[in-house]
Amino acid sequence: MTKTMTKTGMCAALSLMLMGCVALDQRIYEDNFAYSDSNHDGRLNQDEWAIYMQDRSVKTAKAVGYSDKALFDHKLFIKVDADHDGTVSKKEYDQFILQGNTNEYYKNMP
Q1: In a 10 Å sphere around its CB, with 0-12 CB exposed, 13-18 middle and 19+ buried, how is residue 5 labelled?
Q2: Distance, first Cα to last Cα, the chain
Q3: DSSP-assigned beta bridge partners for residue 44
Q4: For residue 17, what pLDDT is reported?
Q5: Which residues lie closer than 8 Å to 61 by C-beta, 6 or more apart?
Q6: From CA 106, how far away is CA 34, in angstroms rounded?
Q7: Cβ(45)–Cβ(86) under 8 Å?
Q8: What is the pLDDT along the chain (110 residues), one digit of tens a residue?
Q9: Is residue 89 within 8 Å of residue 42, measured between CB atoms?
C-alpha cells in the first residue's frame, strides 16, 4: 500500500482480503467434510463423524464439562443430526459450522 491510498481504497483492499479468508475457510470446511465422507454418499455416518472429530473439539469438550471426548463426540453427532436419520447431511454439517463456534451451542446436548 502506498501512503496516498485513500480510505475507500484501503477499505476495498481489506474487503477483498476478508473475502479471500472466508473463501479459504469455506474450502477447508468443504475439504474436511469430503475427506470424512469415506463412502462418498454426501452424508457422515457415526464412523465418519468419528474421523471428522478425531482431532477436533478437545478444548470445547472440556470447556462444556465433558472429560470423555468420545461421549462428547457421540452426543454432538446426535445434536448435529437434526433430522435424526442417523447421518449428518451436508446441510446439517453446514449448519453446525455456522452455529458451533460458541460454547452456548453445546448446552443442552442430548
Answers
A1: exposed
A2: 51
A3: 88
A4: 47
A5: 67, 69, 72, 73
A6: 24
A7: yes
A8: 445 556 565 555 555 444 444 444 555 567 778 888 899 999 999 999 888 887 677 778 888 888 898 999 999 999 999 999 999 999 999 898 888 877 788 888 88
A9: yes
Q: What grid cell was written down for 34?
A: 469430503
Q: Is the distance from CB of 88 to CB of 49 less than 8 angstroms?
A: yes
**Residues 31, 16: Cα–Cα separation, whole Å:** 22
Distance CA 37, CA 95 (A): 17
Per domain, the residue ranges of the chain are 26-106
Residues 6+ apart with CB under 8 A from 54: none
Could you tell me which of 46, 51, 74 has the C-alpha nearest to residue 61?
A: 74
Cell of 109: 446436548
Q: What topology is assigned to 26-106 in CATH?
A: Recoverin; domain 1 (1.10.238)
- The C-alpha cell at 97 is 459450522
